[in-house]
Amino acid sequence: MSFNIEQGLFGFDLTDYHAILGVPVDAEAKDIRKRYLTIARRLHPDSCAAESEVDRQRASEYLSKLVNPAYEQLSQERNFTEHQVLLKMKGQQALRQQDTIVLMSDTARRLAGTGDIDQTYRGAIRELAEQQYQSLEQTLDRIGQISELNLVYLMRKHGQADGTAAPRPTANRPSASGKPAARPGQPAPPPPPPPTRESIVASNLRRAQEYEAKNDFASAIRELREALQLSPTNAQCHSRLGVVYMKLKQETMAKIHFNQALKLNPQDAIALEGKRRLDMTSGQAAAPPQKTPPKAPPKASPKDDKGGGLFGLFGKKK
After folding, report:
1. Which end of the chain has fewer CB atoms < 10 Å from its terminal CB, N or C?
2. Which tens digit of pLDDT belongs to each residue from 243-258?
């Protein structure tokens, strides 16, 4: 099943985990967990109330490929923090490109022009979330509509912070966390330093390798592409994409990424090994098999003489 969502933050090459779970972008951990459990009970095969086999299969696909991965990302503190940084960056990017953005839903257009941004946003999210997983054939459209609301909300909030939108006076009421807002005379505690671009890319790479080890290649590719959105000239991301595509037997895509990695870093060991193996495979297809393998060249590196090392990254051919 293909999940093609192009509205909202999805249109900015970001998987909107909050939209998938139907929660605001500033939702707390306990609310995210509560919402996840509600959705999981509705979609899980043991408790799904869908009558048709098509809907039962659809529910299972949504749970395993959308809902569970979204909760996994938002329930782990480090991943959650990194995703919040990405949301901020995408909101700023959208604000700069606001003249080119076309909102598809009436709800998002109303949010873009409302005066009470917070109350309107939360009410609209709550209303859509109630319907999100009831009629499963409309679920992807609901996710797209929620993501549009998230996009507009982030744009408006960043617009206020940058002074591009007129700030509205706010009362001294409890914050979203339930704690009283700081009074003007009280210094706020310093926020923790946000993750750097390099640390986010490193985390994407780490998660991609974890997914790769589980043979979840689609998730590995998603992580690596998100990393390349932040760091397009990262040779390591390209070489790892080459490895994943090679495991999927997509030699053309693997070669593209190996070549790109070598353009950026001619000494990238993974890309060199991957390209060597691709060339060897194409050579074997053109030439008759040899009874005895040729001797290793005298200047071969120790990694080429052993069974482990980089060779193990590409798996064994059966």
Report:
1. C
2. 999 999 899 899 999 9
Whether the model pTM is above 0.90: no
User: How far from chain centre, in Å, is Cα 297?
Assistant: 43
Separation CA 248–CA 242 (nearest Å) = 10
**Each residue's pLDDT tens digit, 185-219:** 555 555 555 567 787 888 888 888 888 888 888 88
Structure tokens at 41: 């009970």
Establish how many alpha carbons lie within 13 A of residue 77's alpha carbon, considering only the half-sphere containing its beta carbon.
1
Of 307, 257, 308, 309, which is closest to residue 278 (Cα–Cα)? 257
With 90 as the cut, is the pLDDT of residue 97 above it?
no
The rounded radius of gyration (Å) of the Cα atoms in the chain is 24
Phi, psi of 174 (to 5 degrees): -60, 145
Provide the mean pLDDT of the chain.
81
Nearest Cα neighbor of 34 from 143, 142, 126 is 126
The whole-angstrom separation of Cα 278 and Cα 148 is: 43
Q: What is the band of 291 on the pLDDT scale with cuts at 50, 70, 90? A: low
What six digits make up the tokens of 56?
């039962």
- CA–CA separation, 235 and 259 (whole Å): 10
**Pair of tokens at residue 116:** 């009470």
Q: How confident is the model at residue 159 (pLDDT cuts 50, 70, 90)?
A: confident
CB atoms closer than 10 angstroms to residue 188: 8
The residues spanned by each domain of the chain are: 8-162, 197-286
Class of 197-286 in CATH:
mainly alpha
